[in-house]
Design goal:
The chain is of the alpha/beta class and 476 residues long. It has one domain (8-475): Alpha-Beta Barrel (TIM Barrel). The protein is built from 15 helices and twelve strands. It has helices at 15-18, 64-78, 89-92, 103-118, 134-140, 146-163, 187-194, 204-229, 251-262, 266-272, 278-286, 295-303, 351-365, 390-408, 458-468; strands at 8-12, 82-86, 122-126, 169-174, 234-240, 244-245, 308-312, 317-318, 369-373, 414-420, 440-442, 454-456. It has an eight-stranded parallel β-barrel. The longest helix is centred in the middle third of the chain and has 26 residues, at 204-229. Bound molecules: 6-O-phosphono-beta-D-glucopyranose. 6-O-phosphono-beta-D-glucopyranose binds at residues 14, 17, 174-175, 240, 312, 373, 377, 420, 427-430, 435.
Length: 476
């Protein structure tokens, strides 16, 4: 089997990491507008109000809001077939609980979508990529509340109705699977997804399970709603999954690794199998966690099954176990893998892990998979007119080779490959600009200075060749 001719080659971006213009066009303040710039050693700070002495990178992003035509032109020059972008909820409903949407917000996304279509680029729209109006957190307690599910569905409805003739591929949520009652989390991880800090949660297991459940139900309800508005919609949800390997072949470690990896799958089970998994409900019960499963929820699980699975893949990890003396890896936990290198930010580089994960997931659900994110965050050195990012080409080439094997040798139904951060943008976990992913360099620094000029890196022409040859150039 060859990579199909209609394979969706392209990239993924998120509104809060690129748009900027945080007070323009009627946008309301959203959760990420209260998060400062950090670094690999210094966690991002989350403030209750805006502190004039601190830097909040989402306020300016890379100013995609004003540069989108130029940026889309560059994506088109590379031959992009698709761009995954998110619609910022707080541009459409500035507080989240209004009856009527902000027309200027709708107009902005309508213009962006038109521009993509004009260039033959398929828009793939994410409805929630960490962009919740802050008012829904302060007033309703975020996803702890069922009311927030209703507000989210109203937002989805407005988007589906406005763009039903122009957008086919929808993503209900980005990476909700990081909400996990079993593991210790950092503040930034729970905050990014819910606007709530881990350290401030009252009953952590109960609250995290409730949030995860409500988001899962919301996704299924959005899928059902989308299909009722346009049966041709392709509805997906994106998961950020790391294969978890055992440290050695001790069966106890293998079991342990399996259980750690499995935590990332209960929501996919719920969205693909027609019901919220009984094993999870029983597990919760045994831990004293109580979830309210309504009749409407049961219907939503059975009627709101996904059309495709979105997969964000960056790294694999090694399961921790009691008595382990290996070093722990940064940020995501787990032990360091002696066979693999890490990026400067401590993310394990594991191309074969992509093939493994594609196989694992496809064999579990038999649904098409879209690789919705993959890329290397690195420090780039700008020369006069370019950046020689051979390390990025190397990383992407190795991952694409594994994807090709998964498609051509393992017969995985893969819809597309959307590279994360085709243009440099703000890092979600650290808030830095210095952690760059793009084929296109943006002249902006962590302190906010810079001309915002766009410059093609060496990887730009390389990826163009990959797309033009539909992946054949990877063989050389
Ligand atoms: C993904 C997120 O998990 O990782 C993106 O969906 C994020 O929003 C990406 O940017 C890379 O992470 P970071 O922290 O390097 O930007």
């Amino acid at each position: 089997m060859k990579i199909k001719d209609n394979f969706l080659w392209g990239g993924s971006i998120a509104a809060h990491q690129c748009e900027g213009a945080w007070k323009i066009g009627g946008k309301g303040p959203a959760i990420m507008d209260f998060v400062t710039t950090g670094s690999v050693d210094k966690p991002r700070e989350i403030t209750k109000t805006i502190d004039a002495d601190k830097i909040y990178p989402s306020h300016t992003g890379i100013d995609f809001y004003h540069h989108y035509k130029e940026d889309i032109q560059l994506f088109a020059d590379m031959g992009f077939k698709a761009l995954r972008l998110s619609i910022d909820w707080s541009r459409i409903f500035p507080k989240g609980d209004e009856k009527l949407p902000n027309e200027k917000g709708i107009q902005f996304y309508s213009d962006v979508i038109d521009e993509l279509i004009r260039h033959g680029i398929e828009p793939i729209v994410t409805l929630y990529h960490f962009e919740m109006p802050i008012h829904l957190v302060t007033e309703y307690g975020s996803w702890k509340s069922r009311k927030v599910v209703d507000f989210y569905l109203n937002f989805c409805k407005v988007m589906f109705e406005n763009f039903k003739d122009r957008v086919t591929y929808w993503v209900t949520f980005n990476e909700m699977n990081h909400i996990d009652p079993q593991t210790e989390a950092t503040d930034i991880f729970t905050y990014i997804i819910s606007g709530l800090k881990y350290s401030e949660l009252e009953d952590k297991p109960q609250t995290l399970a409730t949030i995860g459940y409500h988001m899962t139900v919301a996704s299924c309800m959005a899928v059902e709603l989308g299909h009722s508005i346009n049966p041709n919609f392709k509805m997906g949800c994106v998961f950020g999954i790391e294969p978890v390997y055992p440290y050695n072949c001790d069966p106890q470690n293998i079991m342990n690794a399996f259980l750690q990896m499995d935590r990332d799958f209960y929501q996919i089970d719920a969205m693909c199998n027609g019901q919220f998994p009984q094993y999870k409900l029983e597990e919760y019960q045994s831990q004293g966690i109580d979830l309210e499963v309504t009749k409407e929820d049961v219907l939503a699980f059975s009627n709101g099954k996904l059309d495709f699975i979105g997969m964000n893949y960056y790294a694999s990890s090694v399961a921790e176990y009691e008595g382990a003396d290996a070093e722990k890896s940064k940020l995501f936990g787990g032990l360091t893998n002696p066979f693999l290198e890490q990026s400067k930010w401590g993310w394990t580089i594991d191309p074969v892990g992509l093939r493994y994960l594609l196989n694992y997931t496809y064999r579990k659900y038999a649904l098409p998979i879209m690789i919705t994110e993959n890329g290397l965050g690195a420090v780039d050195v700008k020369e006069k007119v370019t950046v020689h990012d051979f390390y990025r080409i190397d990383y992407l080439k190795q991952h694409l080779e594994q994807m090709k094997l998964a498609i051509e040798e393992d017969h995985i139904d893969c819809l597309g490959y959307l590279m994360w951060g085709p243009i440099d943008l703000v890092s979600a976990t650290t808030g830095e600009m210095k952690k760059r992913y793009g084929f296109i360099y943006v002249d902006k620094n962590d302190d906010g200075s810079g001309s915002y000029q766009r410059i093609k890196k060496d990887s730009f022409e390389w990826f163009k060749e990959v797309i033009t040859t539909n992946g054949d150039s990877l063989i050389n």
